[in-house]
Amino acid sequence: MTDIVEHRTLFIGGKWCDPAGPNTIDVVSPVTEQVVGRVPHAAPADADRAVAAAREAFDHGPWPRMTLAERIAVVTRIKDGLLSRHQELAELITLQNGCPITVSLRAQALSAVATFAATLTVAAGLTAEEERPGLTGPLLVRREPVGVVAAVTPWNVPQLTIAGKLAPALLAGCTVILKPSPETPLDAYLLAEVCEAAGLPEGVLSVLPAGRETSAHLVAHPDIDKVAFTGSVAAGKQIMAAAAEHLTRVTLELGGKSAAIILDDADLDAALPNLMLGAFANSGQACVALTRVLAPASRYDEIAAKLTTAIAALKVGDPADPATMIGPMVTEQQRQRNLDYIRVGREEGATVLAGGGVPQHLTSGWYIEPTLFGDVDNSMRIAREEIFGPVICLIRYEDEAAAIRIANDSDYGLAGTVWAGTDEHGTEIARQIRTGTYSVNCQRFDVAGPFGGYKNSGIGREFGPEGFAAYQEIKTIHLPAPARS
Question: Which residues fall in a coiled-coil region (predicted)?
Fold first, then answer.
């Protein structure tokens, strides 16, 4: 793709409309540092139009009143449309945020398709209402759509995070205003085209690329019933505060500082490629990244040497090359953030074992070398704060109890792994780690299971039946007790 991808209209309530204002968003390639796309910048007035359309569609339109089977048919067409255009979708994501193309295909485009498929399976197994016995008479328990949803999504895995919100919201009968990140709005336009072709009724979906002002206006809107957000802890706190004004429901999927525990009896050769994937997928720009590696003192030097060798072999370069593992950071600011943390790590006394700078063979682009710090204490900033890049910390521990304590000694609790001699032992460790997701002797992310975090990693769950339930309200209807004979 060499031409600028340009859109001049907004998708509001299922229609392509002129924006309220003249401002635009330039999409800049993190590889070439040149403009590769341009879209309108949605203004607060556009958000008002989108909310009004969604409110009308929810309160009076057909979508919430359709049968579940009818909504499943439409959402199935959305899933199939995304699948048919998944290569184009992946290329757009790589163009916008520099994600290596192999990751854009598997973890971005096809994972979004898989999320729609998994959510369709969940929906097909649900009933709208069920009768239960109560203490004083029969009860009818109903599941109803929560209402108008504002879905605010990030730039790092845009389509996967959109699918985790849009699929259950639509199937539950909600209407949705999608606010994609200004760094990556182009794939959201492709999604809008797919949804339009699938036959979503008027008002059900709007797509508003915008920055902070419009986002703040949207999530604080009194006609929004639920906000579903993926992003930083700081932004999540602001959204929660704004939502409190109207008691708007929220789901917040926030940051992470996940630990990979390597036990004394672990098969390091089996663990190593999984650790590379867990730490450096999407160039380390992932909330679930394994950014703390906990090594037993007895094997610390061995693990440090093998990690250093493996990291040095990672290909840094053009994300369109299938051999590339590390692409650029999404923005120049994000690269500088990583470089600042590398400086802090050195100042704190950690040792750079691999990387630690900007690759010299690349003349353009916001690249950073995959970096490994050794001699890290868990109290250091580089071990406690989310860097969001290809920077990991190797931390020594003395015994298993210390490993568990260090893994749990974090403001975050999103993901993690353990590598043990047996799966049973690893599962014992997993039960003691306070995180929302965890992997034993593997590195997995499964959209069929609930995903979310403890502590500062968020509130609520996405994916699976639990994620679907977040878009429903529960109503209890008390039925008259049968007459006694």
Answer: none
